[in-house]
Amino acid sequence: MKKLIVHKYGGSSLSSPEKIIAIARDIGQLYEQGHSIIVVVSAMGQGTDRLIDLAHQISKTPARREMDMLLSTGERVSMSLMSMALQSLGHPAISFTGSQSGILTNNTHNKARIIDVKPIRIEQALKENKIVIVAGFQGVDPNTKEITTLGRGGSDTTAVTLAAYFKAHECKTLKDVNGVFSSDPKQNVNAKYYTAINYKALKNMCFWGSPILHYRSVALAQKMKTPLFIGNSTNHEQGTIVTTKESHMFEKTQILAINCIDQVIHISVKANDTYEGYRTLNSFLIKYHLAMPQILASAFDKDHLRLMFTDSKETISTIESLIPKTSQIEVLKNDNSAITLTFNGAVDFNIINDVTTILNENSIEVSKVLSSPDSISFVIHNKNQNLAQNCLSKLIK
Hints:
Elements: E1 4-9, H1 17-32, E2 36-41, H2 47-58, H3 64-88, E3 93-96, E4 103-105, E5 114-117, H4 120-127, E6 131-135, E7 138-140, E8 147-149, H5 154-165, E9 170-175, E10 180-181, E11 193-194, E12 196-198, H6 199-207, H7 215-224, E13 228-232, E14 239-243, E15 254-270, H8 274-287, E16 294-301, E17 304-310, H9 313-322, E18 329-344, H10 351-361, E19 368-371, E20 375-381, H11 385-392
Parallel strand pairs: 1-2, 1-9, 2-6, 3-6, 9-13, 12-14
Antiparallel strand pairs: 4-5, 7-8, 10-11, 13-14, 15-17, 15-18, 16-17, 18-20, 19-20
């Protein structure tokens, strides 16, 4: 039987016609070797950012539904060009949008979740021995028939979803870096490269700011036991295998990665208790058709629910622009970042003293410390995030 493989290409790998043609040649070689292939594509280069900028030139608070209609076009451009490139090389290819691919979602615009997959047209195309190109990041609400998008990094989730459904032999995410590093190699030349990493550690790294994948896609791959590989779209010799294997260091602590969430927002919700606070926040989000952001921490204190959250820049901007319309919700701070140490194994809380000492020596003040079984996060002013990452990198051995 043919091996079915799923390849996902990020925007930087698709930023020019020349890069698309080069990728098409690689895909063509795999096809000639006898593989069945599904290719999931992101928008070209900074295409999504350009579309967001266009929308905000028209409206300060563009309608969420119309944003999905707009943003979904970025991936459609990529899928069409990739299919054209393959056809020009003599390979049978066909492109599908998210809705044509049967990616069914809930009705939350800009941050929808996949609820089912009915890839009838993909199945037929594969039976016809065609290379299938899918627009990532998007789907359709089966009830309203509205186009939805999955949020930043949604193409990763599209690829994992299709790989899981078709029980693919491999699911490769191909980018402009060689795999998973201890920190962003574009920011830190001394970042440590990993040839293998386990799902749990990678999920935690991505939740706390690693740009390599969206944490939802890693969680889905772990749940569905989907084999993941992260590599370079032009250098196929290197890459990182995501595995279920754990370290055999017993209780020896190892810091795997230092990642950063660029912007952490602090808000206050006036309420009598935590339940009422979250109900008020949820009502506000529902009113404007927004998804609950990525909550990092919350606490109730003196008639106010105080929350820390993060999300995509456009979602944060939208929430901030709408909050002044209600007196119960107030932005307290929007100038913080979170630096997170992810551990291989259980957290060693003694490291807190080491980290705060290093940061203090570099005149970096820590306002909050958050912990989980696998990580410790330090909330600092965002002007210090690059310095903090660089000076803490010495902790990774």
